[in-house]
């Protein structure tokens, strides 16, 4: 059995590992393409029924837009406005939604890190926005700038993470008025991947867009000539979009920058107890915002987000990676394809530790993403406790799993050329031989199979001899090795200085209001 | 963090649990129906290419049948025989395979535990045949009759386990000559589910069939009028079927009892390094045996088995639940449907502990089973170390996961009646309310969501307060509670005595030869 010493140190296996040149051997950076036909639990009549119900919500019940500009725009568009409540006809909604592109590309400061969303494309985002951070050595604690930076380094290090999304943990040791400045400076210097801006008031959004522009080295017009960064907004379910989310997203939309709209619809809490009802509400809330955005700037990229899960009806606790979550994601996938919109979901779990439960919940969430044809997978690495904890070890474990999906998508595995069918190799080996030695194997074995960096495939005796180290403890060793060898991506000195001076100036001006 | 004491005792959570009336609340016994369309990585030309290659193996290379009776039958059928090598034309193979039923039912001594295989039906089998057993208290050790019996009790206890397959661990404290007698007596009295007989020589097969008949209380003709038990044979890949497997399976076939044919084709070792090539060889080996069986007794139920995975090319160690394994299972699923045969696969993993790796490998294997439309999932609960360890804790963890799939398959989750669409509930709650209190929720909340027995969905503070118990340690507590409350299924005293006296007589005769 695993003992305390080995859980801490990584044991003999850990020592052996230290002799290698780099922390791990990982897959190359790639645009992920999911070739599989999605799983579709709804038949055509079911899709129509969900669509019709979502349209009835928009037509008969309406959505509250807690932002006067948004309401004024929608009134001008012909919607029925009563106070903050906006009702919109299905013809208007469908006309607007049809203007959103089915696929688009976001290009960050390093154009080699551009990602394409929509269709069969898939991209993985780091864990975003937990208040707490955890690792096996220090336990759970409130997030700080050090752990924020560590997790950003892992976001950059792993090729299977495509997007530096929300803060991987909230660095609460930095005052909220200037947090976005320090965080984005770190994000733009420690990573060169697509970044995200929180829609938390005009100053923050404008600051982040300006900092991303500075990091790109481009002038304003060139920078905003195509998607460069994005924001994600959550509705205040049921049936509300709040002021800062709408303000920030409209700033993005006006500059042609993508917006992901993700209602957080826990069935039985802020959405109906039936999963289909929760999907109906989620789709209605999402389309209401996208209709507004397409009215404001037709063709701006928008993504349908889903965060429909269920609660534990005994306690009200949120649950993730459940059977109901998987089906809700698949149904929302069908609706996203019906509307021609890219889809965002998550790698979600409820477990408090990087243990078996965390992995089965995450695997359900990730298989749901795959078989729902999700394009943008939030929280793909590092999430625990329903999003309240960012875990160093879970981050590493998730990246091992993400790499396996990247390999799973490679068409080479199922190619049926004459050489793949291997009849001649079978003939050569015959009934008494072994395939290790034949040329057909020798020509292919180095690339034939996925090679994990975290799995231990030794037999029990060898594993025991090496300290009997369980997965989470092996992951503990891996993140330490990664942080020890981390090198930030290149950035011109002049750009780095311009970023720093922007941050200094904005700090001297007091940063952003904190009373939103 | 989890500490030693809590890992051992289950902590405060464990104490709280002991007050409940039964070990766990579990789902009811059910025939599982998988409604999803399978994932199909091969297009139509790909399926034809694999079929054609498998037929070329059978026509041009041939399979060795290390059993003279089998060879004589195939010679009589018109196959080309050279020594033990048998080549068969595709017309003969396809004509024979077409005689096997696409679906069939196996009815054990308790007819309520009948299972249907083929089509969309799915059934889960306990871990079968590891030499070693492991739990968190006692570590790994060689299997014995006590652990064999414990794992059988768990097989019976969990409603999500449908079949008492092979020995859940080899009880090596019982001499091989009489082991099958003690094992089957235990299996037939501790469980009332479908049982399996190893094809390990004529005496064992005949003894097991006779014992199953005695346990049923039926006469010979009634018992063998339909499928009552089954055997599973593995080819000696590459390209061989050995004597005891053929002898035993032919005894089953003559009595109309089902045979599962499962080549063990590790790509790069006993099969080609290309996954498609390994599938070709597996399909050829499987169909060769099924053609023989259909020649012997047309219409006897046969199942295509797949155990195609890859090795670690650095070490030669077998790997399971890999990306390559998932695709091989999906491709074999396409071939099984092409031939109209039910399909068997496994819940396989390579990990040496019930940890994160074990779960991600198992989840890949189980999602592969689901999206390949596998009918019979071997080793569904309890497998570790590539089948060399039967784990008490993994058994419990797997059953939690299997239950989640059973819930996932329920059509209620995706029903789109007016009540499911919930527009009226959305209207009633409006933008400022909460769904907990409304009638739509109150009418449904008790059955709305799957309720796990092993997941801990409490928040971190409550989980920490209860001892911060990780999943495997919670599972440790669960199996102890299950064994403490276990009650064997009912059996008439007369039948129990007849079984015991059969065992005593066969033991006095010396049991079965051990020189096979």
UniProtKB/TrEMBL annotation, chains A, B:
It is an enzyme of class 2 (transferase). Residues 1-10 have a biased composition (Basic residues). GO terms for molecular function: methyltransferase activity. It holds the Pfam family MTTB. Its EC number is 2.1.1.-. It comes from the Bacteria. This is Methyltransferase.
